[in-house]
Amino acid sequence: MPTIIWSQTIKGHIENENQEPISESGIEINENKSIFYSDKEGNFNIEGISKFPVSITIKKTDYQDYEITLEEDEFLNIILKKDTVKSIESVTIKANKPLLKRKIDRLEFNIDKTPLQNLNAWDILKNTPNILVKNEELSVRGNSQIIVTINDKKTLMTQEQLKQLLENTDGNNVSSVEVITNPPAKYEAQGGAVINIKMKQNVLSGYKGRISTRYTQATYSKGLIGTSQSYNTDKWQLTGNYNFVTGDYVRYNFDVVTFDKDKTRWESDMVRKTHAHEQHVYNFSGQYTVDSLSTIQFGFDGYNAPNNNGHYNVPTNIYNTENNQLQSYYLTSNKKRQYDNSFNSYLVYDKKFGNHNLTWTNNSSTKRFKENQDVETLLNFDGQPESNNRFANNSIQDISLYATQLDYRFSNDKFTLESGLKYSFVNNKNDLDFFDGTSGTLIPDLTKSNLFNYKENIFAGYISSEYKWKKWEMKAGLRSETTLIKTNSDNPVVENKTTRTGLFPTFYLMYNLKEDQQLGFSYGKRIDRPNYDFLNPSKSYYNLYSYFQGDAYLKSTIIHNLSLTYTVKDWNFEACYSYIKDPSMEISIQNPQTFETVYNYTNIDHGQNLGVNFSKSISIKPYWKLNLFGMGEFQENYFMGTDKILYKNDVFFYNANVSTQITLDKAKTWDLNVSYVYNSKTIQGSFDISSSQRTNIIVNKKMFDKKLEAGLVFNDIFRTDKNIISTRYADQNQYFKDYRDTQYVMINLKYNFGNQKVKDAKAGRKTDEQNRL
């Protein structure tokens, strides 16, 4: 790529009429719309001026704009005058926040200068319209296949790791949350929606740090201690975070499977307590400003849990359904040990050429997961002598991936053009060794062992344009992705080579009826590729009568989204429709011949959703905010039953989310947040999922000039965030009670030091392939 070398600079100093320096004044180069800022002493130094004359505009809240045209390189001494009108308008805007702003392709929830900033980023997401949190899992309009980005940079983490990161991200650093239910062509076609967390931007130089600790008491206790460090100069922005987490995790399940022909009911009471006494979560982000038009971003993040282990004792009672008498029973003892390590790195080069911009992004990732389990079963069946059964398995998964992408952007006041190319490669190896212990000694069993290898190449390109005229805005794009897949499994024997090319169009149209009133329409086609774990066709046994099995021929899900939006002031209304072809999900199927329950990740035929939602943010008082969100959606899933008949499962799902934030004192050191969420009955393939609800209370206190923060959280106060999952058709009759230990009390302590206005370095953009790890 050609590189243009700039040699001229503009230097200056900005002060008010009292000769006091004005920091963070915006200096805009009118020719290319580039924006720079003065430092804390009011000085600025702008490099990269190609030629004179050049026109610049200096802007600062509460001051009159200052515009000047320079004929040559010279030092500027600028005095800004107070603007009374703008000062009044600024105060009015702050009083109306938080604001819901409808853009052509997304909904922006602006929380800047509101009590919501006293929460952490995870709790902010819980209060964001269109985002649902159920069983500690994020979803958008009921779709959990989403991508989370921070400043448009993807985070490669599991849901639990992402939750830990966001819980330790200060809300004061969050400016807004963008919910993109129909992502444009620039975004990867993977996933149903995008949540983008926008962090505050400022340019003050210096160092800041934080030490934090957290104690959580649920059924068992958990603890966290961490630190965050940032250093910023004119050229460098460096940010690092590290958290050490320790504790015990538990999940409660009560599973009931009824075999109608055999007239028996099998009840299993599972309490899965996992010891995770050593977890390391870390990330580092760096940015180097080569000149005013070129930047280099680099960094890494990772997660390491060297020894998660548990010993689960699961009793199963078998009853006769005619007289409800205990007929037989067995006890399963499962000793499990896991090792989990992932590491991701990135390098980004960004170059501006006036209205043109080029970005080259590189990502690489590795993941290694090991699991060893030893399962012993004591059997006491009616009419049979007492017996023992034992087996063990060791599994190793290694994933490596690399992706590179080149993006181009041109933009002016009315027209924007974006295009790009991407290539990615993934290699996923799984090695499962099975051991039979029937004889009393563990002996390798090759009939149940497996070696699985999966390779994937993706070539992608996109083009997108946006045009504004009068009250209209239009945006359209097209993305092409060609996927080459090679799968090899030795037991069962599977060899699969496929090449697929998909086109993913997007279209948006918005009409501005008034300044605060918009009407919009959008359409988009998306793809949801399965996680690599779900493509392995080997059997992974939980106990003697249940196992998990993936599908090497699993199809990618295709999603068509239509949306009609209407926004007026802080009210936002949306009507939406989705058609989902070959949705993939985990379902369980009981086998009456073997009495086994098979947990299978597979495709169902299709699904469709039709719904409406609304959101409203209300400022009751300057210190009291109320957020309302409600949605209703008719859901349909069509699946092929065990009897080869196509079934339909449907439900009307509705959700309500009400939260309020109150600042309790004039000094703004006490804050209270109360929220209530209700989810009605929903469906997943052949399963019905019962309703659930959650009530939370959060209290925050800032002390010692707001350097020390203390928080108290009561989550799921009434222990109502749990589900019953059931199915009843043909020869299938089962239900599962699931509770994930969501009722807890948490105490947070944070101590801030250094210059707390220093911005954090932006996290590097992550790839769709990394998101599927």
If you had to describe this structure to a student in words, what would you say it looks like?
It contains four helices and 46 strands. With 773 residues, the chain is mainly β. The chain has a 22-stranded antiparallel β-barrel. The longest helix has 13 residues. It is globular and about 100 Å long. It starts with 7 loop residues before the first strand and ends with a helix. The N terminus is likely disordered. InterPro entries: Beta-barrel_TonB_sf (IPR036942), CarboxyPept-like_regulatory (IPR008969), OMP_b-brl_3 (IPR041700). Keywords: Cell outer membrane, Membrane.
CATH class of the largest domain: Mainly Beta
CATH architecture of the largest domain: Beta Barrel
CATH superfamily of the largest domain: TonB-dependent receptor, beta-barrel domain
Contiguous low-pLDDT stretches (5 residues minimum) are 1-7, 85-98, 758-763
- The helix/strand class is mainly beta
* Number of separate strands: 46
What percent of the residues sit in helical stretches (DSSP H or I)? under 10%
CATH fold-level topology of the largest domain: Maltoporin, Chain A
What form results from the Cα inertia axes? globular
The biggest sheet amounts to: 22 strands, antiparallel, barrel
Look at the structure and give the mean pLDDT.
86
Tally of distinct domains: 2
Number of helices: 4
What is the radius of gyration computed over CA atoms, rounded to a whole number of angstroms? 28 Å
Key phrases:
about 775 residues, mainly beta, Immunoglobulin-like, Maltoporin, Chain A, 2 domains, 22-stranded antiparallel beta barrel, 6-stranded mixed beta sheet, 4 helices, about 65% strand, globular, disordered N terminus, Beta-barrel_TonB_sf, CarboxyPept-like_regulatory, OMP_b-brl_3, Outer membrane protein beta-barrel family protein
